[in-house]
Design a protein that fits this description.
Elements (H helix, E strand, L loop, with lengths): L4 E6 L4 H15 L3 E3 L10 E2 L4 E3 H9 L8 E6 L3 E2 L8 E3 L5 E5 L14 H19 L18 H6 L6 H5 L1
Helix pairs in contact: 1-3
Length: 172
């Protein structure tokens, strides 16, 4: 039997969000999903000028967690993150590897000065988590804008795509 997917809160992530995501992923992926112990934001990855965390530094922090027998580790990061050459990232993964993360702040309506919308926020978190999981399975970006592996350049891209992997990605 494949090992479990572990969700690791990074920073002060709401516990009900993590539990909710674990339940949804369990149902969609059909794999055991457990909630791991929260870890602090990796201060080594902070760029104080940008006030953002470097994505590869966040991944390194997850990689450093032992988690023996665990199949995948998905960090839920309560901080804005970036990668070289990009203003920000919604998430990042080690392609065909174990570790991935979703950065939460930009998935909230309140980040853009709009009223909170918890269900929309959660749907975005789920889509981005599935997208990053797809990368850990070795999938690249998909040209189909409705496929969950479509690259989200903006939040509108995330909202336009579905939760499903298109037939091509399902085979890949
Ligand atoms: Zn991607
Ligand atoms: Zn696809």
């Amino acid at each position: 039997m494949a090992g479990a997917i572990v969700l690791v809160p990074v920073g002060p992530v709401p516990a009900d969000l993590v539990e909710w995501l674990a339940g949804r992923l369990r149902a969609i992926v059909g794999q055991k999903v457990i909630v791991g112990e929260a870890i602090p934001l990796p201060e080594k990855a902070l760029d104080p000028q940008r006030r953002q965390y470097r994505g590869d530094g966040v991944l390194a922090g997850l990689q450093a967690l032992g988690c023996p027998g665990v199949d995948r580790v998905i960090g839920l990061v309560e901080a804005d993150c970036y990668a070289p050459g990009l203003n920000f990232v919604f998430g990042q993964a080690t392609v065909a590897g174990r570790d991935a993360f979703v950065a939460l702040p930009r998935l909230r309506e309140t980040f853009y000065g709009r009223p909170p919308n918890e269900s929309l926020f959660r749907e975005r978190v789920l889509k981005e988590a599935l997208h990053e999981l797809g990368h850990t399975w070795g999938l690249g970006h998909c040209p189909d804008p409705r496929c969950v592996m479509y690259f989200s350049n903006t939040l509108a891209d995330t909202d336009a795509k579905g939760l499903e992997f298109c037939p091509r990605c399902q085979e890949g």
